Structures are given as C-alpha cells and as structure tokens.
## 1
Amino acid sequence: MDPRRGPLAVPKVRRVGFFTSIEPSPETPRPNRSLSGPAEAITSSSPLSDSPSGQFISPVQIPPSRHHSDNLASRAAPVPVPGPSAFRRQLANDRTLHVGSYNPVDSLLGTSPPSSNGEVSEDSGSLFGFQRSDSAKLSASFPNGGFNMTVAVRAPRESEAKVAIASTSDGRKKNVEASGESESVSTKPRKEKETKSLKEKTSKAERRAIQEAQRAAKAAAKGEGSKRAGESSRPKPSKPAKQPQPKKEAPQVTSSVSEKRAVSVEKERRMDVPQTQMQYDDKSRVDKAKRRSVVEQTESKNKVELFLHLPQYERGNQLPNLSSNIFTLDTIHHAVYKVGLQHLAGDIAGDNARCIAMLHAFQEAINDYTTPPMKDLTMDLTAKINGYVSFLIECRPLSMSMGNAIRFLKNQIRKLPVDLSEPEAKASLCSEIGRFIDEKILLADKVIVQHAVTKIRDGEVLLAYGFSCVVEMILLYAHEIGRKFRVVIVDSRPNLEGQKLLRRLVTRGLDCTYTHINAVSYIMGEVTRVFLGASSIFSNGTLYSQVGTACVAMVANAFSVPVIVCCEAYKFHERVLLDSICSNELGDPDAIANVPLRNNKKHSKTMDNNKNLQFLNLMYDSTPAEYISMIVTDYGMIPPTSIPVIVREYRREDLLL
Amino acid sequence: MPDVQSTVLEFVNKLRKRKIEGSQATAKCTVELLRSVISQQRVPHSNQASALIDAVKAVGEQLVAANPVELAVGNVVRRVLHIIREEDLSLATAAMAGLDLLDASDDDGEDDNCKVVGYSAMSAAVAAAAARSTLRPPSLQTLLEGTPESAAVPYTSSSGADSESKSKSADKSSITRKLKHDVIEGVNHLILEISGCHEQIAEQAIEHIHQNEVILTLGSSRTVLEFLCAAKEKKRSFRVFVAEGAPRYQGHLLAKELVARGLQTTVITDSAVFAMISRVNMVIIGAHAVMANGGVIGPVGVNMAALAAKKHAVPFVVLAGSHKLCPLYPHNPEVLLNELRSPSELLDFGEVSDCLDFGAGSGSPLLQVVNPTFDYVPPSLVSLFITDTGGHNPSYMYRLIADYYSADDLVM
C-alpha cells in the first residue's frame, strides 16, 4: 500500500509471550499486536490512520449505510458489492506490491501479517458491523475513508456468512455462532465509542481495520485475478486461497437471491463445522450412525458405565473383514481406507503422524477425484471428504488436531474460486494441504525445538513422559548442540511408548533413566524440568494429552518442578474441558487385562466373562492449566492463559472463512 | 537353643531374600519366632526380664538387619519387648501389693494400688511408679505424683527393668515361671491381634462406605479387601476402581478377589488415576507402614493418588493394623525406606541391549532403570487412618503409637 507496508510484512512470526531471539532476522519495530498493551495500541494506530489514506483517495464507494440497530435478519438482506474496476485495479497493484515483498518464510510460518487475511473473528465481525453501519460517518471523520471502503468490498460476503451462522440455532456450531452473536452484541457499544472519540479506544479496532483492509485488498485483487483468469497468473498457491466469493455467488447479487444464498451458505457451514463428538449413549443416533457405517463394530459386552457416552467396541475383529474389503469398496478412497485401517490397528500412533497420514490420504483422494457430471466440485468434494472423515471416525475417534486439519481442508475447498477448472482446483487443494503439513506441523516443530532448547541448561535432569515426537526432537537437538543433561523417561502401561523414546535416545548416546509412572514421585526429586507433549490444548488452558500426563504434571507441581508443554499451534482448540471424563477415547480393554504376570496367566481368561469386572483403558486425560508452567508453541513461549488469545488471533485466519 | 538359632537363621534368610511379602505375614512370622525364642530362653533366677529382653533384642536386631525396609519386623519386636516389660512390671507390683496388703489384685487396678503401695513401701513403690511412668502414657494421675517420680529419675534413666528386678530378687522362684508364662500369653495375644486386625478394621467399613459410592484403591491389600467385602456384605452396593499397580500388577490380584466376592470392579491403569479421581468418592489404601508423624509408606504410586485426591478434595483413607504402626519418625523416606526391585520387571534387558554401547568407556552407565517398591505419603495428604482401634487423624498417630511401645525400645 505504502512504504510502511514493507516493514509490516517483514516479521516472520508474530510472537506472543516470551520468545528467544533465535531467529536470525531482527524483529522489526512493528508492535506486537497480540499483546495489546495500550502503548502498542497507540503506536499501531498511527500507521493505520495514514497508511490506507494514501492509497484510496479514489472515489469512495460507501455501502448502503445501515442503522446500527440492524438485527441479524436485516443483515441477511443483500448488500451490493461495490467494485469499480479502477479501484480494483489499484488494489490489485497493491497486492502485487505486497506479493513482491512477500517472504517465503512468512508463508511457511503462516503467521506473518500478509497471510493473516483469512481471519474471521468476532472482533473483525463486530468491527465490520460497525463500519458498515457507520461508514458514512466514519469516512467523514477520516479524511480519506479509504479503508472503510476496502472493507466494504468485502462486506457482503462476510455479512452473509455471519448471518447465516447467527441466524441458525444449530448448537453444533458453537464457535462460529458465538462469534455471530457477539458481533451483534458488541457492535453497538463499540460503535458508539468509536464515533465519540477515535483516538481513545479505536486502536484495537483500527488494527483490525488495517487487517481488514489488507484482506479486502487481497480479496479484491484476487477477485480481479479470477476475473482475468486467462491473462493473469493465479495467486500463489502457498497463500491461503483467498477469494471474494464462494462459487455460486456472482459479484453482483440481487436482493432476492441473497437470502437463499444465505441458507445454502449456512448449510455449507453446517457441513463444515466439525461435529461434536457423538454421544454414544444416545441410542437413536448411534443406530443411525451404525446403518451408515463401513466398519462393523460389535459393542463390547462389559461396558464401563461412566463412559457410556464414548464408543466401546470389541477390538481386533474388524480388521480382517475390513482389509478384505479394500478392493471392493467404492465409496471410500483406497488411500483413506488404508489410513483408516492403520488407525484402527494402531500402526500409526501419535497425533502428528496420524494427522499427516490423514492429510496425505486426502491429498491422494483429491488427486483421484473427478467431479461427477451435473455436480458442483465444492459441494461434492465436501460431501466426499465428510464421508471419509466419518469412516476415519469409525476406525478411531479423531484427535483434536485432526479435526482442526479437516476443518482447514473444508475451508480450503469452500474457498475455491468458482471459475477454477477442476485440475487447477485439485492442484490448489493439494498444495494447500502440503503447505498445511509443512508449516503447521513440520516447521512448527522446528520452531518449537528452537525455543525449547533454550530452556535446557547443562547439568539438568529432564523428565519426558511417554512418547512425543516434539519432545524427542528437543532432547536430541539439545544433545546435538552439546548440552550435558540427563533424561528421565517415565512410561505407563499399556502402550509403553516410552520404550520407543528410550531406545531412540539411548541409541544416540543420551544418558537415560527409565521408570514407570507409579515411581514418578520417587524420581521427581531429582528432576529439574518436565517436558510434555500434547494432543491438544483447549482454550481454558487445559492440556489434553496422553493419559498419565496429568499425573506427571501434578507430581511435578507438588515438587515445584517446572512443567513445559510442547505443542504445535494447530492443535489448539477453542473448546473448553474440565475433566477427563466428558471427552476421551477408550482403548482396547484387553490391553489392560493382559498382564505379564508370571504366576497366573489364566487370570484374564477366567475373568473375562464376569459381569462385575471391567477394564478401562483411557487414552487421554486433561491436565489443569495450573500445573503447566509454560507452553512452547510455534508462536513462542506462552503461559496457558494465552491459549485463547492464540486461538482467536491466529487460528481463525487460517481455518475459518 | 540350636533349633531356635536355626529357625532364626532360616527366617533371616527368608527376609533377606524377600521371600516373605506383606507386612502382615512378616509380622506374624516374626512374632511366632519370637515366641519360640522366649519359650526356649533359659531364664536366670535373677534379672529374668532383662534376660528375656536381651534375647529378644538380639534376635530382633538380626531380623531388622535382614530387611530394614520391612518395618513390621521392628514393630513386632518392639511390641514383644513392651509386653515383657509390662508383664514384669505387673508382676513386680502384684508381688509388692501381695507383700504389703495381701491384695493380689491384678495390675489393672493400677493407680489406687500404686498409691497405697507408694505410702507403705516407699522405695519399691517409687521404682514401680518410675517404671510404670516409662510404660504408661502420662495420665493426670501420674503427673500429679510429681515428687516420687522425680526422685526415681535416676532409676528410670538407667533401666527400669533392672532396678525392679533387683529390688525384688527375693521371691524369684515363684515369679520366674510366671513371668515367662505371662509373656508368652501376651505374645499369643499379640498374634491373635495381628491375625484378627482385618476383622477389627472391616467392622468399621459400614461407617465409612455409603450406598452408590465409588472407591478407588491401589495395590493389593488384604485389609482393603476385607474392608470392602465387609461393606458389601452389609448390602451396600458400590463400585470399586482398582489401579493395576504396574509393574507388579497387585491391583489385578485385588480386582480378581473383589470380583469373586461380587463387587463391581473396574481395573484402570495407574496413569488414569488422575483422570478418574474426579469421579471417585473415596480413596482407600492399605498401608505398608505408618510412621509416627502420620506419614504412610504404601505401595508405589500411592503418593500420586494421594496428591490427586487432595487436589479433588477426595478423602484419602489409610487402613492399617496396629502392627504397622512404626514408632520412628521418617527422614527422607522415599529413598531411605524404599526398596528398588529388579529392573527386569520394567524393561527386558534384551529389548535394549542392542542399543546400549558397552564399549564406550564413559564410565557411567547410559541407562538406569528405577523400580521402587514403596511410596511415601506425607501426613498432610492423609484424611483418616482406620486402625483396629478405630479411626484416627494423622496428627494423632504418635500418641497411638506411644500406647504400643515403650520408649526404651525405640532405638534398637
């Protein structure tokens, strides 16, 4: 947009909290936006007030001004998309300039401002609401009013989406709906404040506005790009495919159509939003699900009453049947099928591995996909993916991170430009998936390792629980760079994943101590730091991880040993969780029943039939935030209280919209 | 004598090799052994009590040295010593009372008796009172008897038993056999108490377990088993979660027993203790030993459960027979009162031998495997002790312990 944009684009990672200066590139003076201190807010407001101004002096297109009392229904009313081509072109120029300054590392990390375009947060929504309703006023108050207009370009689309969500009462769309509601609630006060004194409290809104402006600029640019698809090359695939309208929307819509469209968008959303875990004590739904299911499960005879809401199936009997079906099935792509079986058999364990395997399978499936005649690629592919996902769920309940990845994929599908040809769309999707794997998982791990290794000093005794590939990478890297330390590996039945870690560390020459979780309070006295992996971290700071993690964290807390959790940001989830009962996964009970007891081998056999004896194999547990000293994530090192900030600031932009 | 010596050696060997498991079994064996030691001990005419004490102490030292972690051995030895002292004292007072008043009342009439004796036969009574004050808990009565007691301080400090036996070496022939007999009676009583502590504890179950309760336990303890079954027999229906207690899997044994008795039992992994504790109403464990400060030594993993219970405000109840009450105060019990078992229970050597680098002369081994047997729970995490004498607070344990042991025997 203007020279100031240059520095804006530079920072590699928007970091939150404490971070180490391991990145060679100096942090630009750009204020850290996530920690919205008042000082920063003020400084950040200054570029805003003039940065769009230089650019958008062109005739201002103001969307029809609205009352701020607009309710949700009236917002569903059509909003014509303003788009004089001159303006667009200018935006396009802006974009190209922007792309020119685009640093590949940025996109890889996925957190740089340029790629922050896809954000849908309640704040942006509410801001948007106020701008729409008051844009006239505002544009008067800003001498240039340009950025309002750029927002306006984007307005209709977003409003529709929002309305679609807000107007639905479907309880499953918690987050999005919540944002819709909060939009309607927060619009008014904020607007009043804004109009009263812009210098006072506007900073946050303005920061968002700048983001909004960038986003709109990109949207417009891409809109133009897609308009001129023939001549201009497609936007870089490594960027979140940003695109002004979901396919069926023509840029100019009339009011009568838009309501219907809102409905369809809503439908799309509903399909997209990850289903809440099915409650397996709900008989009718279970039956329904069973009729659809590919995997034949027999319910285990001896269910644990406390966990009736979770699937409790017999293990080991589905696999032969399923693997024989592999060539006859036509509904499930073979790659997905294979991954499903691997999940079922436990060949792939670990959240990252499972997620990557699933994404690769989807990539393959998308490559082989052809749109059936008379069908829309977006709709059909989404339905297909939904089918795959439910198959995977049948094989093994999805982890939170997989849910996030699926959400990402569906959003990518929905954002596909209409006029993209099928091969192009497929290529775009596949590259998006590849980008997700690269930057959200692999690169994130590297960043985490870089951060975490600064917390390892010579002579320390580190405790690792179970197996976590990030923790393994950290320990190995610290060893590589010559730190002298000792590792205590705590393991637990029945998976004994710690032995895997033990083997790998011992082979590399690390000094290891191995013990069982029961002995953790014996060994904790000599430990100086605890490193834990995570399956997910919820927005109340609860760590959801391999069962036993909570025990280790608790004992560490009792011994005043700092607990450091290493978790990629894509695993953060906006759900909240209090205990380990409501949301969990049950493993194979036989794994517990089979005990390497020397004297009585027939123990489990004779007891199997007894109604009174159950074996409960919990897979996860939740660690309260108070036990966690620090979370190392790809955005830096943060306290658990900052999880909701990360979720809100960074995740929506990539996943939603 | 030689056959006693050989049984002692045999038992010492068993203890060394950890052939005897469980504090109750150990306690029983110990007390039976001591009984045979006492019965075969030839008692001299003078000083028979101290002779018995010496004999028991000698054996006891061997036994304790054989397995210092099994605190029940030391406890039982101290109990037996205490019995000898007490019987000796009661004989002494009875003899003296018989001398003076011809009132051969049994010693339990104690305090009036004592007073009368104190006025009539001053020196002997002083000795008796002094000895008594070392044995008995300080009651208001003994506190009020300030003057004679202070006079008797030199006696007490030297040795109560010696002074008494000296004072009445006259009529030994009648007493000699009686003392031994009484001591053996007392020891028999102790045996009964040890073997019957389960029932005593289990009787209280009904007061602590209500309908639909969810109880978590870990390790395998006969006391816990009996406790739960007693509640079950009283028609209470409740559910039990049993942590399996890797790597020894004692929990599986307990679960098997519980199921056989018709209790609804769920076996969970040890790592799931924290996850499940939020749905548990009470944690009940059997102690390996209870220290004088109210700390508990229990099966490995107990501390974790206690911490989790504390965090969720779940009552943490410890069942302990009186033979598990140890009069010592622990210092660094996690390490000093612990025992490391074979690594092979955790890790098969063959599994990792290929990646161990034996040739590298770094000196220290790269891989250690830690497999402790016990865990220490500090008293702050314990809500209640249930012993065969009733329920007690952790802070009261030192006082309870003072009833069972005499102060002279604390250091053996």
## 2
Amino acid sequence: MFPELNNLLNTTPDRAEQGKLTLLCDAKTDGSFLVHHFLSFYLKANCKVCFVALIQSFSHYNIVGQKLGVNLTMARERGQLVFLEGLKSAVDVFFQAQEKPHPLQFLREASAGNLKPLFEFVRDALKPVDSGAAGWTYPVLLVDDLSVLLSLGLGAVAVLDFIHYCRATLCWELKGNVVVLVHDSGDVEDEENDILLNGLSHQSHLILRAEGLATGFCRDVHGQLRILWRRPSQSTSQRDQSLTYQYKIQDRSVSFFAKGMSPAVL
Amino acid sequence: MATVATCGGDAVGVGSAVATASKSNVTSFQRRGPRVSGTNDSGPRLVSITGTRPSVRNGQLLVSTGLPALDQLLGGGLAVGTVLLIEEDKYNIYSSLLFKYFLAEGIVNGHTLLVASANEDPANILQELPAPLLDNCKKEFDEDVYNHKTPESNIKMKIAWRYQLLPKMEQIRPVSSSRFGHYYDASKRIPQELIEASKWHGFFLPEKISPTLKVEPCSLTHGYIKLLQFIQNIIYEEGFDGSNPQKKQKNILRIGIQNLGSPLWGDDICCTENGDSGHNLTKFLYVLRGLLRTSLSACIITMPTHLIQNKAFIAHVTNLSDTVVGLESFIGSERETNPLYKDYHGLIHIRQIPRLNNLVCDESDVKDLGFKLKRKLFTIELESGFAFFHSAHF
C-alpha cells in the first residue's frame, strides 16, 4: 500500500470502513497501481481477500506485492487470499470440458452468458468458516478488471448483476468491501462500457479515477488522480467531496502532490 | 580506416558472449534468485537459453524482436510469455517486414518457430525472410551507414566506437555486451541451409479447415479454435510448458500470426460496423495469452486495425495485449510529399508497453518516432523535421 494514498483517503488498515464499494477507474493511462495498493492494504488489514485477477498472472502481483510489503504466496497458503488466475483458468476451461461449472464458464458459451458461476465461486471463497479459527476481520472482493469481462462477450447488464449480487452478499450481509477496476474508454464510443461505468459510479462509496494528463505524456508527472467520496444511500444533502492530485509512480511507491506542485517543476 | 578496424575487433568479442537467464521452473515471470551472479556459476538451476537475456529492470526474460532499435524502445526486448501486437500499416508492407524480422531472429537464435497464416503458406513466408548480417559482413554494413556522415561527426564517434554498431537514435543508452539482436539485409533472402537447420511448424488455415463444416455452436470461429488447439499441442508436445522434464535444453517458441482478424480467418470484425458479435477475436486473444503466460514462448501478431471500424473494439484488443506498436506508412498519403517527412517512410507509434512485475514500465520519453527502410537497415529515429524548424529560427 502507498502511505501517501492512505493519507489522502484518510484511512489506515486498522480502521478502514466496512460495507463499501470502491470503484477504480482509469482513462488514457494505467490504473493498475491502485489495484496493487488495495490488495496490499487489505492483506495488511488482516482481511480475507478474494482476488479475481483476469488480466495478469499470479507472479506479477506477487512480485509487486513484495515491493509493497506483502507476500501473496504465504497469504494464499494460510488461506487469507483466494486467488482466481483468469489467464490460467481460461486455458483449462477452454480446452477441457468441465464436470461442474467453472467460474469462467462463459468462455465456452457461444451466446452471451452470465456470471452466476463466478459469483458462486466468490461466495464460497468468502463465506465465513464456522470454525472461526482463522480470525480474519472481514471479507474483501477485488476484481482486476471488469472491462475484460465486457471484452469477452458478457453484457454490461450481466456484469452489473454480478456486482449487485456481490454487494448484497459481501457488503450488506458480511459487512465486507468490494473493490473493482473498470477502464474508461474516454472519447471512444463504447456503449456497454459506459453503461457499466455509470451504473457502478452511482452505487459506489468511493471513486478513484486515474487520468492521463490532458497535455500529454510527461516524465515527471504520470497522471492525475481524482478522489470522489459519495453517499449513495443517503440523501444528497451533503455535497460529495472531491479532491484532485497529481502523481508519479516510482519503483516501490507512488508520490502524490497538488496540481502544479511536482518536485520537478518547483 | 581506423574506425572500421576497431569496430571489427569489437564485433568478434561481442558475438561470442551468450546471454544468461536464470530459471528454476518454466514461467518466465520469476524474479532472478540471489544465487544468480554470473555465467560461471555451476549448478543445475542456471539455464541459459540462446537469444534471451534478463531485463535490467526486473529480471524478466527478454527475446529480441529482430530489430535492435525496436528492442530499445520496448525496454530491452520482448518479454517471454507476452504478445506483441502490430497494428498493420495500410498496405501491409512494413508490418509484414517486422513479422519477418521476428521470425528470422528466431531462426538465427535457434528458436522453434510456429507460423500461422490464412492467406500465405508458412513455407513461402519462411523463404522470404531477410538474410542476417553476420560478423563477416560487418565491414560492408558500416560503410553503408556512415558514408553520409560529416567528417566532424566521424571524429566524435571514434571515441565512442561501441555505439557505431547502433542505428542512429536520439537517446543512446549503453547496450549490454552480449549479441542480443541481429541486423538483417532486407534485399537478400535468408540462406536455405538456415531454414533447413531450423525447427518450425506451420499453420495454414485452408489446409486445417475441413471443407465440410459441421455446424455446431462454438464459442469461437472454427479457424481460431483450430489454431489454439494447434498451438497448445505444440507447446505440450515439445515441452515448452515444462511438462516434459527429460528435455535437457530449454528453448523458446516464437509464434507468429499474420493478419489476425482479417476475413480470411472467418472473422467479420473488419467487414461490418458491429461485427464480432460473438467476440471471437477477444476470446482468442485471451486464451492465447493464457497459453503464453504458462510457457516459454513469445508471440507476434499483425492485425489490420485500419480496417476495423469499431474503435471501441480496438481499445478492447489493446487492453488484452501486452505490447502494442502501430505502424503508419506514408505511401499514398499526403505526408509522402510533406517536406517534414521526406526522410522517412512512415511513423511508428508505441501504443502500449506492459508493466510486468513492476509498478513502472520502460516508457521511452521520445514519442515522435519515424522509421525508414534503407537497403540493409530498418531505422527508427526521432523525427528530425522538428529540429529543422528550430534551427531555421535561430
């Protein structure tokens, strides 16, 4: 996790809020550093994490996680982390017919499928074990990323249904958190992606949006992060709070600064 | 000339060094262990595969794309286990050249090749590969590149003789001493004996598809399914995924897929506005990447993206690939006669570089890149046209 981002979000692993949906979004840049942040954050908070990693392999997250101070291999061995490696599972489900429904069953179907098997996988991974020996604080679902599901033929409605079920089970029933990443296509007309993004924006409690700079590529400032706190269930008597920072990604951390205050400029 | 003599001396030393890779099991996404220090370590854990080198940033195993200038732009080379997507230029001239450079590099390094095409027999593609410039041709190559240089710059380069081997680049970074990438003569064909000595598998779509198509609801077009099965078969049979432990010498599988997405593959994404309702191509890319990540292979795909009208689809394909490079040639466009671009044949756009095992990636600072194909060299340079405008004002 990045200590500077924790300060900006005003959280620490000990006293993070529960029952929240966090939406990570990137436009014209790569927002995967936010995924690494939240993965290490929740592992350090001693939560039971189910990570649906659709875009990269396990060793990628493991190596970056080690730079951020968490060991994914050990977390997986002691049962704290349930890792669904999308790329590897896709090969399994595609080449061999499976007896029982596989979480990525939709890859075999010709028409648009649904994500029910995936939801059941997540639910079984995160439901509290009655023995209670492990003592994890609360469950967390992390998905990297949802736009891949749209690329693979699922409709925006199917993905929204999946998130709805996950929220109902994890956020409301089990008092856990859900963090998802969606790419914003920007000026490219992608109707399904826009439906998904708008639908999730209305349900989220916290939106983190990483954007590339409007003026183009810069070596010292990699992008701009907009943070938006929302209260979707309550009436909007309070205004949603929003902050904008610019950031630079380094080898082991990300530094944040106010707009125009990059150390390279001052 | 003194410069050529020192150059020749260096080339011999350079050619004999072999890159070292550290491997304990098959996936290339392993960090180098602390025991790996040099080539002199004896021990069964160290395996050196010819034609590969670890990345200086994160120990990732890299192979050359066949174009040393492109290797530099991609941060040292193409990572094993990843996909390089080339967005074809309009007449598929330069993209097929890059495709051939990639395959020729595989032959020179002794890698196994897998060539897939829907419109050209892989055996014919291999016949047309460019001839490698090996060390005995060094002298000829140097004279060709430097006969237009002013005497002043020649004197400057005498001091930094090591860099004479590089094509002109605005940023010159120090190269490692091992012979990683090779240069090719685009006007000559690769010697027949090199092709015969190499191991390659061809996938020619018209041969693999049976004429009587069984109409069954599949999640992918028939051609894509066949290709994935073919690739998976080769990977499994020849042990690129580590499933065959008695194979002593590990090798890289270089996969080349030409014109993916064109109608010849049975896909309608290039024909219609809202094609690919079955999302064939994206599913294919996803499963392909899954196969690559779990094996010692690297893949180059050329795709006619200029024919795809659905721009959102191109964004999906970009997100599902690792490295994406776009080529834009000036042939037939208004830029051909533009004095700004008169030295170049086209522009090369590095659209995406993956962040593998890392928060950061090796993004080059230089974004305006032009390429030109001289007889023996495909060079990529910062467009000097902008420099021309600056000097005109001062």
